[in-house]
Amino acid sequence: MTDTETAHVTVAIIGGGQAGLSVSWYLGRAGIDHVVLEAHTPVHAWADTRWDNFTLVTPNWHCRLPGYHYDGDDPDGFMTRDEVVEWLAGWLDTFDPPLRTHTRVTRLRPLPAGGFALTLATETGEETLTCDHAVVATGGYPIPVLPAFAGALDPAVTQLHSEQYRNADQLPDGAVLVVGTGQSGAQIAEDLHLAGRQVHLAVGSAPRVARTYRGRDCMTWLADMGLYDKAVPEYPGGKAAIEKTNHYVTGRDGGRDIDLRRFAVEGMQLYGTLTDGKDTRLAFAPSLRDALNAADAVYDSICADIDAFIEREGLHAPSPTRYAPVWEPDAEVTELDLTAAGVTSIVWAIGYRPDYRWIEASAFDGAGRPMQNRGVTGVAGLTFVGLPWMHTWGSGRFLGIDRDARHISETIIDDLRPNAPEPSAPRASARHGLAVAR
């Protein structure tokens, strides 16, 4: 949008990541007046909050956005961070979103007559913009989580969150403690391990999954089984299943399992959940053995589900297998002195939390999460997109963004123009300054 003085717009999309821009793609085709408000630059998180050796954990063929999909020569491979940034830049070349960068929405409040007033913080000051519809596309969990006791640890120990980690050389010499074994924690631990650093790893409750099984990537099997398309109420395990951390696996070097037991054989020091710390002393729960067993049980259960699908569909595939543990902890270590162990840095990989305090609307539960159905809230005109598990397991992933964005866009279009004609095709534009990190 070139007119930065515009006082009113029909639809304001808050967030210029792939989810918000996907909604813009559909609204643009329908000729709906809208603006995309981005606090930084479009899809900046891919270049700015991933480590140097980051790769996707989902196969490249999962990468689908409105009017655009991965069409390279390695559909079953895993794009690196820089390749993802370049791929997204190519998508932005295909249409012309009305985008305002370096524009942060600091307040959203409903207006008595309907619609919303947005307070914008820009490079030149503060502005107010009103809109009939607001689409929140800021991501599900933007605030990095640190434990309450992090500030009580020895200041000589370097601490950073996983989103700040780039590579092993960024950290001071010495051993590194990685806390958390979700996708980021497990992969960062592997990155440091492969770089030759002594790694101490506090193991959480995240499950694991085989990279490949019976001749195909597990995520390709799961897609064929329809698990990424099941709506939340229909998903096996119900609400408990969708609250769990995603399975750890890696796409690095063409993709492979992450086996924490194998890391232990190779010298990584494993512990249970980190529960407390002060100065240089840390305390861990005696949960390591149970955590490893539980992760392996999920690994094997997914393999069993694939076995059942293969048999049910009468498919031909290599014979089934099960994971055989290569290491067992002799005893649970529940204390660690950082100085004695030579640990000079900690990487916190314990997740993120929502922060919608800037939205003054009754659309959130007691935990501060949006109360929504496929992104639509009970507040007229207020919708969300890009949330994990917003509709299916595919929501928040490249595989499900197009479907979710289309639904939100159709909801808005139907409200504004119930008898709207078929949208026209978008026009091409420049890359909006999206640079490939090197």
Counting helices, strands and paired strands, the structural category is alpha/beta
Shape: globular
- Strand % is 15-25%
CATH level 1 class label of the largest domain: Alpha Beta
Major sheet characteristics: 7 strands, mixed
Portion in helices = 10-25%
Number of helices: 10
Total individual domains: 2
Q: Gyration radius, to the nearest Å?
A: 23 Å
Q: Unreliable runs, pLDDT <50, ≥5 residues?
A: 425-438
Give the N-to-C terminal Cα separation: 29 Å
Q: For this entry, what is the oligomeric state of its chains?
A: single chain
Provide structural commentary.
25% of the residues lie in helices and 21% in strands. Strands 1, 2, 5, 6, 7, 8 and 23 form a 7-stranded mixed sheet that branches. A 5-stranded parallel sheet has the order 10-19-11-12-15. It has helices at residues 18-29, 44-48, 81-92, 183-194, 218-224, 238-242, 260-265, 288-313, 338-341, 398-416, and strands at residues 8-14, 34-37, 64-65, 68-69, 99-100, 104-110, 116-122, 125-136, 143-144, 158-161, 175-179, 199-202, 212-213, 216-217, 269-271, 274-278, 281-284, 335-337, 343-348, 352-353, 372-373, 376-377, 382-384. Helix 1 packs across helix 10. It folds into 2 domains: 8-142 and 354-416, FAD/NAD(P)-binding domain, CATH 3.50.50; 144-348, FAD/NAD(P)-binding domain (3-Layer(bba) Sandwich). It is globular. With 438 residues, it is an alpha/beta fold.
